[in-house]
């Protein structure tokens, strides 16, 4: 793990223990609150963040945000038991149904302890912390339950897994809604964009992702430079085809 400063109030904790990509956990410090965005794969990974909070930020309210239900974003929730954990209402529902299944399929990635720890605060469309300038909003795309976070003071957009380089994972069949979410991102005019597995994102990457999704929906042929991109693209095609056949 290493840490990288994102802004004057934000640090990314970058983990490289998963094959083929890094995973980012973000900590935003405001005057009275600390926001932890996603919690990775178990209590061991959250120890540096807990240490930071306990040593320097223990007078502030801690709020955890789960951007979506996938295991690599929620298994560290147990480290923040007793604090408010926020997600979209659909995220909590899916986690309730699939927590054990995800554990069975991916238990080899756990470090430390993992217990079923669901979000205790949910919302449908938008949730704003006005004094902190932090806005959470529903942004279905990568998954149907995805949310994003916008820091109005720093103008940083945190997009979960809705953007990723070199290629996104498409795990939900509603491509039109995904594109709508990406176009909505542009209305925020962010100065910086960061994601669950990528830090160096620009508005250009939003446009490229829209183009890719439009191509997928119209059956366009793509060529890619790396085997990894080809593999993920094939998975995206299979996911859409499987969902369309149901």
Automatic annotation (TrEMBL):
SMART domains: Lactamase_B. Gene3D superfamilies: Ribonuclease Z/Hydroxyacylglutathione hydrolase-like (3.60.15.10). Residues 22-197 form the Metallo-beta-lactamase domain. Keywords: Hydrolase. GO terms for molecular function: hydrolase activity. It holds the Pfam family Lactamase_B. The keyword Hydrolase applies. It comes from the Bacteria. InterPro entries: Metallo-B-lactamas, NDM-1-like, RibonucZ/Hydroxyglut_hydro. This is MBL fold metallo-hydrolase. It comes from Defluviitalea raffinosedens.
């Amino acid at each position: 793990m290493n840490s990288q400063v994102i802004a004057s109030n934000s640090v990314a904790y970058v983990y490289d223990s998963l094959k083929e990509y890094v995973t980012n956990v973000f900590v935003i410090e405001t005057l009275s609150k600390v926001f932890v965005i996603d919690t990775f794969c178990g209590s061991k990974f959250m120890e540096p963040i807990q240490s930071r909070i306990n040593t320097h930020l223990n007078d502030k309210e801690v709020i955890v945000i789960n951007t979506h239900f996938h295991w690599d974003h929620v298994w560290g929730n147990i480290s923040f038991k007793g604090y408010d954990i926020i997600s979209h209402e659909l995220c909590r529902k899916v986690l309730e149904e699939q927590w054990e299944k995800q554990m069975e399929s991916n238990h080899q990635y756990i470090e430390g302890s993992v217990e079923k720890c669901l979000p205790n605060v949910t919302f449908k469309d938008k949730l704003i912390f006005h004094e902190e300038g932090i806005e959470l909003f529903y942004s279905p795309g990568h998954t149907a339950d995805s949310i994003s976070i916008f820091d109005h003071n720093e103008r940083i957009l945190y997009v979960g897994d809705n953007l990723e380089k070199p290629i996104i994972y498409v795990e939900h069949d509603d491509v039109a809604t995904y594109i709508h979410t990406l176009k909505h991102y542009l209305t925020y005019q962010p100065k910086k964009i960061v994601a669950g597995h990528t830090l160096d994102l620009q508005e250009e990457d939003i446009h490229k992702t829209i183009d890719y999704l439009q191509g997928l929906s119209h059956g366009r042929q793509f060529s890619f430079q790396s085997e990894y991109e080809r593999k993920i693209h094939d998975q995206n095609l299979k996911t859409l085809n499987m969902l369309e056949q149901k």
